[in-house]
Amino acid sequence: MPAGSSLVCRFLEIPCGDCDVLLNSAQFAAGIVLRHDAELEGGRPYLNHTVRYAADTILVFDLRARLHSIFAVPPVDTASIALLADASRFTDDHREAFRSFARTIPGDISAGRLCLRVGLGAALRLSSIPLREIRPVPAAIRDRCYDGGLLACRFEPTGRVQYLVDIETIVFNTFHGV
Amino acid sequence: MDNDELLQRLAPAGEVVEETSVAPVETARYLVFHTEGTHYALPSEAVAEIVIDAPRFFVPFVPPYIRGLINRHGEPYTVLDLSMFLEQKPLEAFTYLVLNVPGDQIAFLVSDVVEIPRVPVNEIAVSEESDGCLCGSFTLNGTEVLVLNMGTILARLKSDAGRE
Q: Whole-model pTM?
């Protein structure tokens, strides 16, 4: 690789209190506006709504509320933008856990996609960030952070911190009550 | 008059003057700091940098004595609150000791740095404290200073903050 060049990835930046959360854009397929999501009986924390999309009924995971809980930020009500994650990209264990959970819900719930509520459109930003600017979490706390879904961090020139999180880990930890 | 003559005159008759030599006292340099009044010391070579007033960023999933991360030259450092770690009392301060820890990036949160004295090794009382986070103590200007055992602290951190 020529000197000075760097791999660049696309990330969705979600403001979350004093920090930003970075989501790897490879982990979601599209963004949609949530208008008519319905409450789901018998759901789980953060996983208690569905939405109709392209003739499917899709589960909605409230990623914004979960992130606010993780980063100790007061909850907010409004979050109309959601991402669509393709379940075929989940790890085998997660895909199976998702399929099993979808089967427990009355109605025809799609096990092929998961909808992730992320926030208000105006607050979100899609950015290209050189990977060399992203730092692993220090070794002493790395395992705990990885297990919780926090992979790495980046300090912006403005002094703000950004945390790169793994959507799958965050979603499926709630399946296990973490 | 040469030295031998002078010594013979000074010494009372019949007394033999012996030359005495004082063995050099071994000393070690420590960085002394305090957390809300309790004084601690670390070997000075264990500290790479003293940082004052750096912003601290919340980090989730960690024990309560990990107070967040600080940014040192673009690298994240884990901030360990010594007061919380040793005495279960959270410290409100923004002074950090960035440590020299091979393979890791750790900083201690402290109230203030006191001084960096040379301490005679024979004046350090060895501690037999049960959990091993302290390895000795000495007196500096009338104040007891507790010497931290970095190895034990880092091992406990690794055990606490490691995979559950």
A: 0.86
Q: Please tell me if residue B157 touches chain A, with a CB cutoff of 8 Å.
A: yes
Neighbours of A116 (CB within 10 A): 24
Which two tokens mark B62? 């960690």
Say if B164 is an interface residue toward chain A (CB within 8 Å). Answer: yes
Q: Do A147 and B78 touch (CB under 8 A)?
A: no
Edge-to-edge strand order for the sheet containing A135-136? A125-130, A8-16, A19-24, A161-165, A150-155, A135-136
Q: Which two tokens stand for residue A71?
A: 């980063």
* Residue A133 scores a pLDDT above 60: yes
Which chain A residue's Cα is nearest to B59? A71
CA distances B163 to A96, A147, B64, B68, B157, Å, are 24, 7, 16, 18, 11
Give this complex's ipTM.
0.87
CB of A132 within 8 Å of a chain B CB? The answer is no
Q: Which two tokens stand for residue B34?
A: 């305090």
